Amino acid sequence: MGGPAQAEPTDAGMVIVGAGQGGLQVAESLRAEGYDGPVTLIGEEASAPYHRPPLSKAILAGTMEEAQLAIRGAEVFERQRIALLTGTRVAAIDRSARHVRLEDGRRLDYRGLALATGARVRRLPITGDGLDGVLGLRSLDDARRIRAALDRAARVVVIGGGYIGLEVAAAARKRGLEVTILEAADRLLARSATPFLAGFYADLHRGQGVMVELGAKVIGLDGQGGRVTAVRTADGRSHPADLVVVGVGIVPDTALAEGCGLACDGGVLVDDCARTDDPSIVAVGDCTARRTGMGTLLRLESVQNAVEQGKSAAAALLGRERPFTAAPWFWSDQYDVKLQIVGLSADRDRMVLRGAPEDRRFSAFYFREGALVAIDSVNRPADHMVGRKLLDRKAALTPDQAADETFPLASLTR
Amino acid sequence: MAKVTFIEHDGLEQVVDIPTGWTLMQGAVQSGVAGIEGECGGSCACATCHCYVDEALVDSLPPPSETEEEMLGCTASERRSNSRLSCQIRVSDALDGIVVRLPETQS
């Protein structure tokens, strides 16, 4: 790390496009790194940066006020001299002139540019996707619409058995509504979790009275008077609904990056330090795909990814290297079950259990060629926290030790 | 509403008005108190909002849940008898004037 990064005499400043968790982190980390020049944070949404994870949990459940979502109060932006432009869309980036053009025609010069444009909900390529009562969940506005619809709904169909779908299903079920999950794959969480964990969550939701339909391919939505009434599946069935929540994934928002010729491949391509192919431009969070040391691409959708890439990006804009290589971690809250995941289990060749799934308190440890690669912890937060250290330090935990509840995992982290 | 005094590890004090029903973490993070990260947004999933609560008041708080208890075993700074996760402490009038000290590091 160098010394304080003073603004150059003609410093055009740092511009950050996207005012979510990642964008805010870039802005604050620039200040934390000692950068003294202008910092402008531009967001499309009307709200100042807010915590997104509670949207599918406490906000739908009605146990959290919207005011509690804001990450920082207005005075914190002032104190840090971060100019926050909300409700503002960027139309284009001109890399040779080093400016961004706003939709209202204004131009903002930049010395360094950070893209934190996030992602958009994936739409269903079927008829009826535009009916009233068919909603996706990504933004605070989306959550408001779903919460209002839950207040009136009796029957909810969730299309997609990923984390968002499962969390919405849990919130709707807690409100006593009739809930059906339609998942096209033969198991839940098909893109992100192991069959074992997916089975646990199918049982959990069924035990709570949710109808979980696997292999249920949605072919159309029926409506009356412009409002959705039912979801049709390929097996010929019709599932009545007055609210349909579509949770079939997100699409990284790469339009601005592609528009200015930055390399994208299912996300803006970045290295471990959040650098794009343009030395003046970094990218962070859900909009990115990271080139790993192994020549593969890694796309993560998580708070940790936004925060860590945000820190790396701020450093990179100041010519410093701060790689983000820590094991990825995630969490999901459904009913009284807290899931915490660390690592990536896709390449596993072995699983061992610590604790008992029937007690709803266990961790599944995943290994590849004898080395720990990931841990799913259900209501066992200590396993998760120790697991992060084990993975980051590449500690030599054996499957037998993982399965032995008397073996102190923490002994390998000292 | 409660007036809460956060004291950073380096001694810097910040007094924050926190509405009833909010958590200490939410009040601190929205006010930019540097010693609390609260990365998971208050889900008791990250242990980066560790704090040391006023000894005089710690016993009057609802005790930690099992999850908080386990997470407190995994904080980056030393756990003490008055250690809590600030995302799990809801503000009430009874906490008016409480002093909360912050650890050296959260992660």
UniProtKB/TrEMBL annotation, chain A:
Keyword list, A-Z: Dioxygenase, FAD, Flavoprotein, Oxidoreductase
One Pfam entry name: Reductase_C
Cofactors: FAD
Lineage, broadest ranks: Bacteria, Pseudomonadati, Pseudomonadota, Alphaproteobacteria, Rhodospirillales
Domain Reductase C-terminal, residue spans: 329-412
Protein origin, superkingdom: Bacteria
Residue ranges occupied by any FAD/NAD(P)-binding domain in the UniProt entry: 14-310
Entry-linked InterPro entries: FAD-oxidoreductase/Apoptosis (IPR050446), FAD/NAD-bd_sf (IPR036188), FAD/NAD-binding_dom (IPR023753), FAD/NAD-linked_Rdtase_dimer_sf (IPR016156), Reductase_C (IPR028202)
A molecular function GO annotation: oxidoreductase activity, acting on NAD(P)H
Protein name (Swiss-Prot/TrEMBL): 3-phenylpropionate/trans-cinnamate dioxygenase ferredoxin reductase subunit
SUPFAM superfamilies reported in the protein's UniProt record: FAD/NAD(P)-binding domain (SSF51905), FAD/NAD-linked reductases, dimerisation (C-terminal) domain (SSF55424)
Gene3D superfamilies recorded: 3.30.390.30, FAD/NAD(P)-binding domain
Cleavable signal peptide: none
A GO CC annotation given for this chain: cytoplasm
Organism: Azospirillum brasilense
TrEMBL record, chain B:
2Fe-2S ferredoxin-type domain sequence ranges: 2-106
Molecular function GO labels: 2 iron, 2 sulfur cluster binding; electron transfer activity; metal ion binding
InterPro entries found in the cross-reference section: 2Fe-2S_ferredoxin-like_sf, 2Fe-2S_ferredoxin-type, Adrenodoxin-like, Adrenodoxin_Fe-S_BS, Beta-grasp_dom_sf
Pfam family, one: Fer2
GO biological process: P450-containing electron transport chain
GO cellular component, one term: cytosol
Family: Belongs to the adrenodoxin/putidaredoxin family.
Name of the protein described by the UniProt record: 2Fe-2S ferredoxin
Species of provenance: Azospirillum brasilense
Lineage: Bacteria, Pseudomonadati, Pseudomonadota, Alphaproteobacteria, Rhodospirillales
